[in-house]
Amino acid sequence: MSLATLLSACGGDDSSSSVNNAVSPTDVKFNLSNAIAVVTTTKNAQTYANPLKEGNPDAPAIALQSAENTGYAGYNSSNSSNLFAMDEKGQLSPVLANNLKGKFSYSVVSPDGKYIYIAVEHDSLWESNDLIAATECAIFKVNTANNSHSCLAEGYFAEKPYNWNEEINDGRFKPIQIDGDGNVYFIGKKFKVVDEDGYKSIQDLDDINGSSTQGVITRVDSKTGQIRQLSVDSKSIQSFIVTKSNTLVYRDNSGLNMLPDSTKNSTIPLLDSNTWLNTYSVDDSNTVIYQDSNSLSFAKPSKEAAGGIDRTKITVGYNASSLIMGDNGHLYSLKLDPISPENSGLYSILPQSDLPVVRTPDLSSSWRWSTPLQIAKGRAFYVATGNHNNYGNYDTINVANLTNKETIALFGGEPTKYRLSIENWKYKGDTLYFTAFNQADSTMVSGTIDVNALSQGKPESDFLDINTTASVSNDAISIADMEIIRPQRPVNSGGNPKVVKVSTPVSNFSSSTIEFNKWMDPQSVENHISVTNTDTGEQLKPMLVWLNRMAHVIYPALNQDNNGELQGLDFASHYRLFIDGNAQDSDGFKLVSGQPDDKDRTFNWQTRPEQGPMLVNADHDESTLTTGNAVKAFDGKLTIHLFDGTLTDGETKTFSLLSSTAPRFDLDVSATNFYSPFLGFYKEADETSIYHKDSQADNEKFDAQGVSKMTIKLARDGKQYSLNLTVEDTYGSKKTYTGVSNAELGVRNLTLVYSVKHDSYRSNEVIIDDIRNEGEVIDELDFDKWNQLPRIDDNAQAPGLSFYQY
Prior knowledge:
- With 806 residues, this protein is mainly beta.
- Helices cover 5% and strands 44% of the residues.
- It is built from eight helices and 60 strands.
- Strands 46, 47, 49, 54, 55, 56, 58 and 59 form an eight-stranded antiparallel β-sheet that branches. Strands 1, 10, 11, 12, 13, 14 and 15 form a seven-stranded antiparallel β-sheet that branches. A seven-stranded antiparallel β-sheet has the order 53-52-51-50-57-48-60, with no helix packed on it.
- A hairpin with a 5-residue loop joins strand 6 (104-109) and strand 7.
- It is globular and about 110 Å long.
- It starts with a helix and ends with a strand.
- The relative contact order is 0.08.
């Protein structure tokens, strides 16, 4: 259908799509003075002095009036726009000068903050006819310092697929993107301006070629301005991402595809399904990360096969509904489990953990933002829905501490002052920017959260700033898009590069994580790293995924265990990771300048046995519960003998243990002469909850993803002993159970027994850390003394450990 036909169908005629020749290119001007952000609203509107300001100092100075509301006498729909600049106080002013009419879709700022690209909305071209006809431009490149502008690509407009936010739920990417060399990419369709009887009108590609075509991924060279098409117009582009190293990945109606080098023509299919459930993203170098069923795959340009790719995958165990990059260099995913909501939440994929980092509500409906959750400075930020009996639903910005799991809700306590509907948000430069409609007084508001101040524990008044942006009373205007005008901060601050640490969990057969103190040159590190099986001498060929200052080392998935889980490393094997001193950071400085000794860049570790106990330290424990050394047991029974003897009247003994549990286990705390035969818990493989085992209780359910701490308190009161077992789950929920005994009999063989049964290669374990008796460690978990730790039998009279292998 031609544009003219479309306009006619909407109630217009041919003349309504025409523009008088009196409008010249010199009339088109942009104004970004004092702007910290550029926003587009859902409707074209004009700004005017708010009449409600008089007598009400708290009212906003600016009001917005749309074409659908003619209550403002000075409103003229022929010179309205939806593009506004926002200053530090949240006040709006038109970006398009000289009262020209235009409707815009979104804007994207360049990494250095020097330019902002502004795309005309294709679905509403009739509202921008004068602007486009005068300039033959629908993608403007505006200098943020002096407001000068040029056209990115004459005769092209940039499409935004309707489901872009569902496809790309990482806030870093919009439908205009810029690679590391400054080349610009967009989904382009051609148009031309034609002169008909002295008037100019716009014809799109359908009118020019007489056939229906799709937008194609288009690349504009930053140096020459050359325009190159990277996809075909017979397939519908649903989304795309370009990496800093010119690698392109896109999804069309036939599947997911990758161009290892966008300057060349080689296209590699990654997935032959176009389902949006297969989320994808990219790292900070040139690796494409995409979901493939219950696995996560990685692909990057091959060093050996010209125009080809190398790829590998790891088992995740669930369908990742999103991929979220944290500023700490970790890769996270949201897991939605409607059958067992206690399993839903934010999970770390790199480095990999089986326990959720934090529980979150169902965020699957949060597609209206480009990302449903953002992570910064050890906090997870997400929008949740609250409800008030008298005022209805409203949004809160929830802030979850990733360390202690505590969550606070902003804007949830003053319904007469704030009842927000969050419209847009973006994290940039240690600040979280957001816009919202405040239902409490029908105003548009904008705000910032100083993430540094929040993470330092400062009061809300120090980290939260909110301003009323404009009054929209009796109007339904909201913010559709927001772009922050601020350059990306420098990635380095000087100094010599160093390896901070290498984490190599004994139960993770898929990856290790290297943390550097500076951003590194990815290619240089990849050329100077080696991983060796020191038992066999085999040299591995890992793939490196770069996120911030972290390099995640993905081992090739060469085999599968008995459950079909992918394994890159072998059981009970010794490995060495070495980084040569010639590896460089992004400033060109070599690692040897900061760490001249090879031993500081050499890391040895042993993978876990298929069965049996093992001693590990914090760097080799993916559960993150270990603070020092700990015992892990795999596929068997770990017995810990705690106490045998008597207590004086009023005396107590407390034993505390940090622990995590497998998906399938039995836990018993027993003493042979207690009335209650045992206190304990169990969990089956297909269950999501832990059940209490007690002869006096009917398998009481204990909702817990895993046990993070156990406390056993033994006390004597007169002629009776009491034994309390307190179990705390990974979110701080506690339950206590009690057994009793006659004091005359004393305590015989107070023992804790973990029975762990095999389910998967990385989950069938229990970890016991720091077994303490009133602050004193019972078993000194020392690597040098591991072989000398006391082993116990059924008649043991001293504390110790034993392990029975099934």
